[in-house]
Amino acid sequence: MVREIKKTRKEPETRSTWKFYQAMLFLKPTPDKACDKSEEWPEEEKRSLINFYSQNQELWNHTLKDYHDRSRRQVLLAKLNEELENKY
Length: 88
Fold this sequence. Notes:
This protein is mainly α.
């Protein structure tokens, strides 16, 4: 796939003849959005997320018994979604 991407970068009008190219396009790198400030979370939501995770260790602490309870984690994540007003 990397070879095919390099070929199409050098010669954009050239189409790949590799039969899996179209199916594998999801692997093509995209521009990094990490530097895009418009995508940044508001400070209040960041704190809300951090507080929620600190109060609910079942979401990240794999040594706890409830961490392995998938339904419990789904309930907690649904509650988090409600706290963040279903934005994400």
